[in-house]
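Before the break, one more example. Copy the sequence into your notebook; we will annotate it together after we see the structure.
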Amino acid sequence: MKTEIKELVAEGKLDEALDRLVAYLESQIDQFSPLYRAARVAQSEFNQSKEKELQGILSEDQIRLSNNLAINRILEILEQLERRPSPTPSTAMRNKWLWYAAGGAGAVLAVFFIWKVFTPNQNVEPEQPLTPTDSTLVVEKPPFPCPSFDEEAEYSIAIFNFTTLDPKDSIADKFLVEEIDAIFLRNRFNGDATLVEKINVSVDAAVAKSMIKNCRAKMIIWGRVFETHEIDLNFYAPSINNEQQDALDSELQFREQGNFQASIKQAALIIASRVLVMNKASGAVAVSEEAYEKTVKKSTTTTSAKTKPKSSESMATMTLANAHASRKDYKKSIQYYDELLRKNTKDTVARKNLAIVQIKVNDVASATKTIDTLRQYKKVEDPVFLDKAGDALQEKGWTRKGAELKRDAKQAIQDQKVVPKILPKE
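Here is what the structure looks like once it is written out:
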């Protein structure tokens, strides 16, 4: 049965494949009730899309996306059937399938089948200082109901409807939700991306912060699709928006003209990899490498090595460096931090992380030089970083230099009137 359904998918007979799948699951409904409901939802949505296609309502992009989503759902359900050790699914997967049945589908991308049908032939923690400017935002309850997240999710992302001028681009935000959830599922990470629809509110950092405080969201994403299909994404997360001036941590720009789906896939890889790295999840390095390959390496053929990288390229590189550092592969992490600094010497986040890694590999001379250079660029001392670097130096036996940095950290606290609790002890 499963082989027959896969053959139907490969032949592009999605309606027949869904009919077979629903019929099979219905015959086993006591054992596979959640999967049956998920299949019925997929079938219903696919049939609705086909009706709109016949009426001439859908664009080619919308038709392609509808078919791709149907393929993804079919193959993910088949995968669940194949790998289930018993009739009772795990709590996490059961909750995820119930979420699907409620109408929000996340799927593992079936690249081979999509191609066949639709184409012609640390122990290092990345530096996470708080931002005094950010903390001054007025936090109020959001002026709309909180979205419903999976209660079992370890990390929840709220994605607002994108601003668009072309109605056919209105599916971009839903596509991003699907792509992020697919990556989480593929890497067995219990994350949940949810679309916040039809909210007549201008989203900014203050609204995002209120959602994080009141709605269990850990990341907020909003964006705009331009007439050329270029995309700008803004996002907010306490552990990401470290410094307001770091554009790479607040905005992603994608310039795949005429191909917004390629841009959305890049965005999903970058965002999901960042989440996986922050949560020390399995697959973090692999997803980060994929994001780097598709975002950075792809652009090197047309971009000078001395050109300041786009925000998306910077984030992909930073995330890969942090991923290697978290796995104690310090040599590779240094390679990517250096790459960032060659393109932007004033990237203070990369310089901070590089200094900590250099200390970890006992290259204290280089670390000291990196720290001194950083302090020249920074207009205001960062007490969190200075304290952390001081601890790392003392652990390596450089007690004098370490004590000096820790004294400077305490002085910075007094000068800036920063609350002492921002100096965490690891």
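The beta strands are 155-160, 163-164, 191-196, 219-225, 231-236, 251-254. Confidence is low (pLDDT under 50) at residues 86-139, 241-249, 301-308, 418-426. Try to locate both features in your own notes.
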